[in-house]
Amino acid sequence: MIFTFYSFKGGVGRTMALANVAELLYQRGLKVLMVDFDLEAPGLERFFDVSNQDEKPEKRNIPEVLYSPNEVIQQRGVIDLLLSYKQSYSFHLPNQESENTSQGSKEDKIPFTVEPINNFIVPLYAQNDKGGKLDIIPSGSRGEQEFQEYVRKVHSFDWNDFYARYRGKEFFESFREELLKSADVVLIDSRTGVTEMGGVCTYQLADVVVMFVAPNGQNIYGSLKMAQSLSNPDLLKKDGNGRKLYLVTVPSRVDNNEKQLLDDFQEEFDEKFREYIPDKMRMRLESLQKSAFLYLKIPYVPFYSFKEKVAVRDADKASASDLSEAYENLVSALIRLSPELYKKTHRNTSLLYLSSLAGLCQHYSNGYPNNKWKRVFDEDQDILRKKIIREWNDILPPVVDDLITAIYQNEPIDKSILGSANKLITEQINATLDVENDNDEQAIDNPLENDNMENDIQSKSGIESKVSVEKQNDSFFAFVGKILFSKTEST
């Protein structure tokens, strides 16, 4: 999935947010590729400079950097890739007649780069124990000796000519495909304002546009106009080939000390941008009983405005906790827009513990605890609860946590809480299974509303015998979920 980080004005913390999001996704085991498309004001690589860390080398919470910023800027990047393609296209100029007939070769019809995209990818972090990796395509070669040449390349690049004479639209569709093959998630740092580069990064390349809105009139007005444009189906059909485009608006540089101004900004932000919240995110916010503003707002922390620092590396420090939490919330929100990313970032838990929680709910369905789940899972309740909390701490709504607490304390629980928890758990499992609206027959029903499900759970050995067969196909966890949702007799 491709996320484009965009802002109407500069100085809103867009690039810093991208660096923090990249760091968190890497920590979660994803292969992350950053693309510095802010050609006129590049510098994304500076956030991965170990010399900017205040701690001694042995205490730095950062992996070993394979290429330092000074080494990254020596490498070719986006502008070099574009020029390489133009040169290649000139040597392989398609025949005009073949363009307009069915006789043209595939090579004539599909633009290509003379070099593979890997030639422009610079590794930053090696693969971690979760499989995560972090790479970057810089803006272009702009070391001390090359900087003036870089400026010339960027200023002389004619975007209108590129689209008119070099099949720019087809090139970027091809480029998008190559990006998706190169990583689990691609993060593009876009140019600000209304520019050709911004249009490429948003309409043509992105699946999700993450737009940062600072608390002033220029930012709010410009961001709102861009939100309206990015939601225009005619423009999306023309420039994005009809691809669905999510828009996530993020209030940024929010000063929590100015209480009245903060409340005013929240009211204006929620009023103007509420309609652009993706449905998947809206459901999450409703379950948390929070507005998008409160969940996604990124506070202004003066310390992190000096140098290029990545706050999530200091998550254990009180000084960075608010900013780190904000970026964690943003990552959680973005991951939920992609079932593939969601599954990959929760691969270690799969559905088993969420399903086990559903099983606990079912055995609690009369409002009072019983011990049947112990026979099913053969695990100490305290251990099971801790596993659930540890593995699902970023996706469990508060009502589910209340349920876990009641189960843990072996106390009766209000049926309304139980019902709400069951509903949310069911939604989470179906979302994790990536059950689409047009395939509802595969969805798991709410266990409290289903009186007809077959009683499959008789004993732990019974589950094992079924599991041994079901392990052979991809529906294993769906099967486990359905078993755990089965109605059973209280003990």
From TrEMBL:
InterPro entries in alphabetical order: CobQ/CobB/MinD/ParA_Nub-bd_dom (IPR002586), DNA_Partitioning_ATPase (IPR050678), P-loop_NTPase (IPR027417)
Highest rank taxon of the organism: Bacteria
Domain CobQ/CobB/MinD/ParA nucleotide binding: 4-280
Pfam family, any one: CbiA
Coiled coil: none
NCBIfam families: AAA_KGGVGR (NF047398)
Matching PANTHER family: P-LOOP CONTAINING NUCLEOSIDE TRIPHOSPHATE HYDROLASE, PARA FAMILY PROTEIN CT_582
Name this protein carries in UniProt: CobQ/CobB/MinD/ParA nucleotide binding domain-containing protein
Source species: Aphanizomenon flos-aquae WA102
